[in-house]
Each structure stands twice: as C-alpha cells, then as structure tokens.
Specification:
CATH class of the largest domain: Alpha Beta
Number of helices: 10
Order of helices and strands: HEHEEHEHEHEHHHEEEEEHHEEEEE
Number of strands: 16
CATH superfamily of the largest domain: Creatinase/methionine aminopeptidase superfamily
Strand order of the largest sheet: 4-3-2-1-5-6
CATH architecture of the largest domain: Alpha-Beta Complex
Largest sheet: 6 strands, mixed
Helix content: 25-40%
Number of domains: 2
Distance between the termini: 43 Å
Shape: globular
Radius of gyration: 23 Å
Amino acid sequence: MKNTLKARTERFQTRLADNNIDVAVLTDEDSISWLAGFWGYLGIEFGRPSMMLVPKDGDPIVITPLMESDMVKAMTWVEDVRSWEDPRGASHWDEILSSALGGNSAKTIGLEKLKTPALISAHLDTSHSASKFADVSAILTHMRMIKSAEEIEIMRQAGQIAIAMLEGGRSALGEGVPEYEVALAIINAGTRKAAGFLTDAGLDAFISPTVHNLQVLQSGADTAMVHRRSSVKTLKHGDPVYMCFCGMVNFRQYKLGFDREYFIGSCTDEEAKTYEVCIAAQKAALDAVRPGAIAEDVHEAANEVYRSAGFSPGYRTGRAIGISNLESPELKTGDRSVLQAGMTFAVDGGITVPGKYGARVGDSIVVTEDGFEFFTPYPKELSIV
C-alpha cells in the first residue's frame, strides 16, 4: 500500500510541475489520506492542523501535532514528519510551515482553495505575500476519478459491511421497537463485519472497525424528512422505515452510499406504487451506465421514469464516491462528464411526498468495461416485515 501511495504522490508532483506550481500545501483529510496514508483525530476544528507539503520535485513533508506524531509516523510512507506544539514560537505549526516553504520567497503555492481552513490561508496570505496561489483541486479531483484495483477491492469489502449493517437493522424491525434500537443493531452488525477484514498488524492496526456517526433512519410520515436521524420514536403498524448508510459506511477511509426501505406489517397502495417507481427510476439509470455514457444522460433516464409516473424530476440521481463522500462526476443535469471504467458511484431512486412519506432506494457501483458491478448487491423489492 505504501508503494501505491508513493506512486500517487509522484504522479501528483508531475502534474504540479506541468502546471508550474512549486509546492502544494494540502490540509484536507481525504487528500492527505489518499496521498500520505494517514489521518488524524485532532482536526482543524480543535485548532490543531495537520498538513502535507508536496513539492513539484523532491520529498514531501508532513506537519502534524506532536501528540499525534508517533501514530502518523507509523502510518505514513513519508519520511520527513515534522511535529509542532503549543505555545506559539519556533515549534508552532505556522513557523514550521513557513520554514518548510523556504520563507517569504516568490513561488507558486498550490492549495485546495475551498477546503483550506481560514487559519491556514490567512497565515499564508500574510507570511508569504511574495507568493502566488493556485488551486490544485481540479488536479486531485481528476486523479481520483478512476479507482485502482486496490481501491475497488476495498470498496467491495465496504459493500459487504453495508449489507451486514442493513441485515442487522432489518432483523431488529418490529412494532413497538424504538428507532434507536434499530440503529444500535446496525452499528453492531457493521462493526463485527468490518472487524473480520482487519488484523492488528501494519496499517490495519490503526483502522477502527467501529461503525460510527448518527444513523439516518426515519419511520412513518417522518420518512419525508429524508436525513432525520434515529430517535426514541417507536415503530408502528403500517410504518415505512427508511435506512440510509451514507456517512455510516467508512472502511479504510472509503465511503459508500446504500439505502433501503421496509414496511411494518402493511403498506398502502399509494406507498407501494411510489416505492416501485423509485426502483424503476434507479433501474433506468443503472441500465444507462456504461463507459462512454454521459453523466447527465444517466440522470435523465431516471427523470423520464419519474415524469411518466406523474412525479417531479429529481435534482441528482448519483454522485461519485471514494475516499470522500462526494467526488466527481455527479449524475445530474449539467454534468457532461464521460463515464469511464473504474469510476464509482452511489445511484439512487427517491421520491418525497411532503408531510406524508418518502420512498428511497440506493446502491453503490463501479463502472466496468461493459456496464457496472454492484458493491451492494442486495434485494430491493417491496418488503413487508
């Protein structure tokens, strides 16, 4: 894995040189993880930044808090790890960063502009006023579009974890069961499945199998709220129950999208029809997925199903996924990206009837040479528990 990360970084350095960028200062956790192979647990929200400096030639540098430095050194292939500590002075991050950049000399510094914290950008604007700044976001976005065989295998494992989570949640469904008990069953099942893919050696030792975050789960009329989290509300006869695992499945830093809906005891004809339209819309989109397809055309295939059934078209049918929850391209109007083998997407079908209910289904896939492969192959037909 470390050789893979190093090779990625070298390709990134070639892109920097091609764009006349002297050095990139990366602060986004996903970008650092994708190139350097580590992630921290004390982020910028605690005022404790970690960053990776990638020169167009030469060796990269990692700057990280002292209290995390032992862990970072054990995780990354980067040999030059510089730790910083409070209080301000020669050992603080701003001084270490300036020193690593060679002081206030004229150069072009690359940033992920929309992802660079104000704390970092303000320091660079002030202390490196002789430099020009360039946005490297598009370079990294393009590099990350096509997943490697190694990444795809990780995402297959993440798909198995997502399915285990769903099965854990489904087994807990029943009249009178609180929503949070279903969420706990999801977390337990996913954690145990993830643990089965890990060892306590090498980088695995730093990967927690524990499924975390707040479970997206609603029941009854609250399914129209789409992203409401599980609560103390109890399930009732006739309730639809919607479970979404976006933001929950995060294995070896790779994220998936996965959604299923079930009904407790019974469902109305209207609910059943709406749910079937969601399945049909997702199928239409999936049937359009292949190398050479245009992203917005896949989206339009789903919208045709919604319109023909009397529903409004959706904003987006899918999003690229990977080490980030949202990558490029997106399956939506205006995105003319050409699909290629190795791209990975979450593809959804969804309808909201405000104040009444919501119907949803979603899966993660990888585009193959002749179509696509499911990461989450699991039944989606209407199911009454």
